[in-house]
Amino acid sequence: MGIVQSLIARHHESKQKRADVEQFRNALIQAVSDGLLTPEEMSELDALRAESGLTPGDLGAIRASAYAAALAAARSDGRVTEGEEAELSRIQRYLGLADTEIAPSKAELARLRLLSNVQDGNLPVLQVAGLVTQRDEQVHWSEPSRLLEEKVLRRRYEGGSSGVSFRIAKGVTYRVGAQRGHLVSETGIVPVSTGELLVTDRRIVFRGDAKSFAAKYDKLLDIQLFSDGLRFSEAGKSKPRIITYLQSGNQDIVGAILTQAVNRYGAA
């Protein structure tokens, strides 16, 4: 075989290999798109891979993509059950994936499992160094946060006018339209302390570098949960507390734990 014929043959082989890989990828993604991989589907995939002569090295990132697709199916309802987690582990073993190869997906799976447990009423219990707790008080969550408060940013006078003077007799003038200026204050919501938000079975606690506070559940008037923090009002306090999270990803867990804690212990 000449050089030209050899190059043409290699080109055809490479083209066929890409086609085989794409065919197997489509079959694999379709098989796991429901979050399950049955024995029958495994057998069909094994047969297709053997027929195509594909090696584990040929599959490369396809395996991680397949696991991500299975995880997406499992989490479509916002929860991952114990059974779904077991199925994902089975898919991971079939794909021959180490945890380090799918670290982001595994971290998201752990987060979703925790959220599901909280929603089922199983709250985590943490040990927080340096926190002075009440007798038998349990800490359920700690989240890096920042305390915000409404502050006066600047003040200015506006609206003052000297008016207009009219002479009505020798040595006598009459002034009309004069207005005294008034002070206008411009306010804004600004950070005043950085620390951690703690949710216990009795209180919301904020430990900060400049300010700290604790609010018992039976003193709360309302709580508003946001994608980046929360706001709540207390009896006897003129201004609400505003907390923002320093990192994203745990807002639904914080909200679920706080909801469970308030509903469970608020009237206690």
Query: Residue share in helices?
Result: 25-40%
Number of strands: 9
Task: Compute the CA-based radius of gyration.
Answer: 32 Å
In terms of DSSP E residues, the strand content is: 25-35%
What is the mean predicted local confidence, pLDDT? 84
Distance between the termini: 87 Å
Q: Encode the helix/strand succession as letters.
A: HHHHHHEEEEEEEEEH
Main β-sheet, in a few words?
7 strands, antiparallel
Q: How would you classify the helix and strand content by structural class?
A: alpha+beta
| Uncertain stretches of 5 or more adjacent residues | none
By DSSP (H or I, 4+ residues per run), the number of helices equals 7
Spatial shape: elongated
Give the secondary structure arrangement, pairings included.
Layout: H1 3-32, H2 39-52, H3 56-59, H4 62-74, H5 82-95, H6 103-119, E1 139-158, E2 164-169, E3 172-176, E4 182-200, E5 203-208, E6 213-216, E7 220-226, E8 229-234, E9 241-245, H7 251-265
Antiparallel strand pairs: 1-4, 1-9, 2-3, 4-5, 5-6, 7-8, 8-9
Helix pairs in contact: 1-2, 1-4, 4-5, 6-7
